[in-house]
Write a structure and sequence with these properties.
234 residues; mainly alpha; Leucine-rich Repeat Variant; 14 helices; single chain; globular
Length: 234
């Protein structure tokens, strides 16, 4: 047995000790029965995982990626949440090798609960630090993979004034008529977050572009909080 597999097996034993059947059923239903669960709420899961994550501080990027892949192969959703936290905690060990694990975890067992964290926190960090370039983001945006597209739209969520507005517009505009709920929601979410920093730019964008009602409603939430009138968009 490899060291990586042994680590995952010990983590599984720790999660099993706290198994909660009622919570497990409810959590699986919440995720539309796409994933199994140990029934662990996030606070408890993180407290269990914390010492395990600390054990990995001497591991290299190759072994960490193996652990992430092993976690992703498990049926319970708690393992994928732990896997993305492994990558987040040790992202600096990957640096310019981070694209492969990012694409793996975005495109496997994909759902909003993992993808949104990965995009906003890890992809956002990697882009600012030059470990993911503009061409890669544009490649994701032009792909047929729903969750790569969503990641390209929301990776700047935490940027505030550092957001690249021309880039965001370039990423949004080909998707303004996209039919998928998660893409439409992502467009509105990205605009809403930017409106907290530059509301006038988002107002002008809403004035000059057609988009789905869902995208527009999401974008307007930030403007309403900033005290801007959105009556003409109703």
């Amino acid at each position: 047995m490899s060291i990586c597999q042994g680590w995952v097996d010990r983590l599984e034993d720790a999660y099993l000790e706290q198994y909660n059947e009622d919570n497990a059923i409810a959590i699986s239903k919440y995720f539309r029965n796409q994933f199994e669960s140990f029934g662990l709420k996030n606070g408890l899961r993180r407290s269990i995982a914390k010492p395990f994550l600390e054990e990995l501080k001497k591991e290299n990027a190759e072994d960490l990626f193996e652990i992430i892949q092993l976690l992703w192969a498990k049926p319970q959703r708690e393992f994928q949440h732990t896997g993305m936290e492994v990558l987040m905690k040790y992202r600096k060990k990957f640096n310019d090798k981070i694209v492969e694990p990012l694409e793996f975890i975005i495109t496997h067992k994909s759902w909003w609960d993992t993808v949104d964290f990965i995009a906003a926190h890890i992809v956002g960090w990697a882009y600012l630090n030059g470990f993911i370039n503009r061409n890669k983001i544009m490649q994701w945006n032009a792909s047929d993979h729903l969750w790569l597209i969503r990641s390209s739209l929301i990776f700047q969520l935490k940027y505030k004034d550092e957001l690249d507005w021309p880039l965001l517009q370039q990423l949004i505009e080909p998707k303004l008529d996209h039919s998928d709920f998660f893409i439409r929601k992502a467009i509105g979410w990205a605009l809403r977050q930017y409106s907290y920093s530059r509301p006038e730019r988002v107002l002008e964008y809403l004035d000059t572009h057609e988009m789905s009602n869902l995208s527009r409603r999401e974008a307007m939430k930030g403007l309403v909080r900033k005290g801007y009138s959105t009556d003409k968009y109703q």
